[in-house]
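User: Quick sanity check before I run a bigger batch. Here is a single chain. Can you write out its predicted 3D structure?
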Amino acid sequence: MKRRVPFAFALLVAVASAAVVKNQGYLPFADAPIHYRSQKLDDPVARLEQRLERGETKLRWDQTFGYLPAVLESLRIPVSSQTLVFSKTSFQFNHISPQKPRALYFNDDVYVGRVQDAKFLEFVSFDPVQGAIFYILDDNPAGEPRFERSEVDCVQCHVAPATRGIPGVMMRSVFTRPSGYPAAGLPAFVNGQDTPLADRWGGWFVTARNAPSAHMGNTLTPSQGVKSTLPIGQIVDSKHYLTNSSDIVALMVLAHQTQMHNLITEASYRARIAEYENHDWSDAQQPAEELVRYLLFANEIPLTSPIAGDSSFARDFAARGPRDPAGRSLRDFDLQKRIFKYPCSYLIYSEDFGALPPKVKQYIYQRLYDILTGRDQSPLFASLTSEDRRAIFEILVATKPDLPQEWKQSARRKPGNSTQQKGNS
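Assistant: Done. Predicted structure follows.
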């Protein structure tokens, strides 16, 4: 399904501007039970800030890249995750162009944006309870650099239909003019695993050894409407970037991960609100069911040809595990017909998934159990073969300690055999 968004919505990690409003104005979810303005945060950036305040670590300033290398190292974000976006869809838009794209870096929990010659580094860091928390860091040299939380400026665009109505993240694909501005009057798309490849990566550079023939990356849309190709190596000065890649595999993972984060946060928020307002659990069940479907890539657009990146991202990403006794991991790539070899999101191991309200986790684990053991043979999950279901089940039993006892008991009965049997849909 194509998801279009209005022209005014900002792109992933559009966090900072010259005048940042940190704590004024209307803020969705500021009241009970969410308390989004809570200062009791436990996200990776908040933890790093605490270490800085206690003097346990320091951030080195680099003459070329500012605090970026030190921040990536401290937050354990691989340089190979770099992607480059040249559309002017950030609060620091005046510094962005096809010649000077914004660099984005990420791991499972944090997104970092750097705009060449701009004032701030931009961050979205996921708190286990609150979801997306937005920060900036002044990128000028300072004796004691400090992260500052930025709320209202960010949620103006980051609480929207594109983020499922909660503070979240999004990866936009837009038709882009030579100036870098999105082309007015033309559609824009929020990229996820369900986005057709032809609608992905507008306004982004895409580098690869193998890539699909039809996508919106690396192109400009002049006023007459004829696309032109951007040769990244000829127009972008690589000395201003940590690497010369905008790896297609990183872009694929980014599309999956951003929407997965939003679904986890929405399921958490809706369940907490339903309980607080004494509503029936069914009010929160639909987001949980959507999370299950996305978790198992039920809506994934198949690849039309093999994909291969041009950096070490795929290797770096897969190396993080965890792995079962057979050496299998949910982080293993396929990249022939789909993204992952075992189609169940690695974010099932994330802290925000682990912090889901008990009713939500109970529902999700039961649904996963029914699907993976073959009780649920509904058409929604027809893309999962019996081998897929068995492998995912076995990997989760071996690597996910908090699974219900029923899973472990079934594993001893070799539940993979039951995936051949039809059950209730």
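The chain is about 30% helix and 10% strand.

User: Great, the batch can go ahead then.
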